[in-house]
Amino acid sequence: MAKHDVLDEVFVALGDPTRRAVVRHLGRGPASVSELAEPFPMTLPSFMKHLRTLESSGLITTSKTGRVRTCALNRDRLDLVDDWLAEQRQHWEQLTDRLEHFVTDDKDPS
């Protein structure tokens, strides 16, 4: 899968506040599905759809031990987002620096 396809899936997954809250929670460490679902006023099947979206984007991994499914954050996927944002920030800083240089050097001294 191309890098931009992966980024598309990650941004779609992060486009929902419930999924962002799950990612935030998992930033503190792995958690069971029931722990993750507890604060949300929705049915477990609805919550599982959010987890499947996060898992298909690669943001989380899940494992099952007995009857407990545990989720963990895949920080490599977040690093892809961070790298993309850093590229965008650098590009726009270069453009604004060029604009600043153009504006300040092109003034008429009279």
Topology overview:
Elements: H1 3-14, H2 17-26, E1 31-32, H3 33-37, H4 44-57, E2 60-65, E3 68-73, H5 75-105
Antiparallel strand pairs: 1-3, 2-3
CATH top level class name: Mainly Alpha
Tally of separate domains: 1
Radius of gyration: 21 Å
What fold name stands as the CATH topology? Arc Repressor Mutant, subunit A
Order of helices and strands: HHEHHEEH
Molecular shape: elongated
Number of helices: 5
CATH superfamily (homologous) name: Winged helix-like DNA-binding domain superfamily/Winged helix DNA-binding domain
Helical amount? 55-70%
Q: How is the largest sheet built, in terms of strand order? A: 1-3-2
Unreliable spans are: none
Output the keywords:
WH_DNA-bd_sf, 110 residues, single chain, alpha+beta, Arc Repressor Mutant, subunit A, ArsR family transcriptional regulator, DNA-binding transcription factor activity, elongated, HTH_ArsR_DNA-bd_dom, WH-like_DNA-bd_sf, three-stranded antiparallel sheet
